[in-house]
Amino acid sequence: MYPYEITGMIVDDEFDGEEYVTAEFLHEHNSYSITFKKADLEVINAWVFNDGSSLQRTCLKRWSGSLEMM
Fold it and tell me: What confidence tens digit (pLDDT) does each residue in 23-69 have?
């Protein structure tokens, strides 16, 4: 399993009548942000930040119990 560090988390319970969670974390010197529905963990948005720029990640998969960016 690859180490990561959660650097921030926001729970938004007022958007569109549902609760969403945005988790920010560091992994292998990159910063990531993933937004998902709290009720069913459906991924809504995923971003990777590198050198002050961001790229939206459109594909996530589960691997060995952790998220791996593709």
Answer: 999 988 788 999 998 888 888 888 888 776 776 554 444 333 444 44
- Name the pTM for this structure: 0.67
**Beta carbons within 8 Å of 9's beta carbon, 6+ residues apart:** 21, 22, 23, 24
Q: What residue spans define the domains of the chain? A: 5-56
DSSP conformation class of 40: T
Q: Exposed (0-12), middle (13-18) or buried (19+): which is 39, by Cβ within 10 Å?
A: exposed
CA distance 18 to 28: 32
Measured distance CA(24)–CA(10) in Å, rounded = 9
